[in-house]
Amino acid sequence: MALSVCWAGETQLTVVTAHRLGRLMQIIAGAVGVWRALGAWARIDSLENFFIGLD
């Protein structure tokens, strides 16, 4: 009995850890996506300024 309770607790802990890790990965992926979008926008903005400067 004690063994099965221990195993269930360990399984639950593993599931919770995996869920938290998944959430952390989502947050990191979201942050990276925003960072890349801002970087792309900054590059486009500087290219526009570059071409405007050439005129």
Which helices and strands appear, and what pairs or packs with what?
Layout: H1 2-54
Structure in words:
The protein has one helix at 2-54. The chain has 55 residues and is mainly α. The chain is rod-shaped.
Keywords:
55 residues; rod-shaped; mainly alpha; single chain; 1 helix; 96% helix
Compact overview of the structure:
The protein has one helix at 2-54.
**Can you write the helix and strand succession as a string?**
H
| Oligomerization category of the chains in this entry | single chain
Count of alpha and pi helical runs: 1
Structural class: mainly alpha
Overall average residue pLDDT: 79
Unreliable segments of 5+ consecutive residues: none
Query: Which value, in Å, is the CA radius of gyration?
Result: 24 Å
Largest sheet: none
Number of strands: 0
Question: How far apart are the termini?
Answer: 81 Å
Shape: rod-shaped
- Strand composition percent: under 5%
Tell me roughly what share of residues is in helical segments.
over 70%
